[in-house]
Amino acid sequence: MNALFLAFSHLRWTWARSLVLILVGALILAVPLVTQTLLRGSEDALTQRAEATPLVLGARGSQLDLVMSAVYFSNDRPQPITRAAEDAVWDSGLALPIPLHTAFETNGARIVGTSLDYFDFRALDVSEGRMFAILGEVVLGAEAAKRLGRGPGDTVVSSPENLFDLDGVYPLELQITGVLPATGTPDDEAVFTDVKTAWVIAGIGHGHNDVVTADDEGNITANAAITEFQRITPDNIDSFHFHGAASDYPLSAVLVVPYDTRSGTILRGRYLDPENPLQMTVPADIIGGLVDRIFRIAALLDAVTVIIGIAALGAIGLSLFLSWSLRASEMETARRLGAGRFTILQLAGAEIVVLLGCAAVLAAVFVAAVTLNGDELVNWILAL
Question: What's the 3-state SS for the chain?
Answer without folding.
Answer: CHHHHHHHHHHHHCHHHHHHHHHHHHHHHHHHHHHHHHHHHHHHHHHHHHHCCCEEEEECCCHHHHHHHHHHCCCCCCCCEEHHHHHHHHHHCCEEEEEEEEEEEECCEEEEEECCHHHHHCCCCCCEECCCCCCCEEEECHHHHHHHCCCCCCEEECECCCCCCCCCCCCEEEEEEEECCCCCCHHHHEEEEEHHHHHHHCCCEECCCCCEEECCCCCEEECCCCCCCEECCCCCHHHCEECCCHHHCEECEEEEEECCHHHHHHHHHCCCCCCCCEEEECHHHHHHHHHHHHHHHHHHHHHHHHHHHHHHHHHHHHHHHHHHHHCHHHHHHHHHCCCCHHHHHHHHHHHHHHHHHHHHHHHHHHHHHHHHCHHHHHHHHHHC
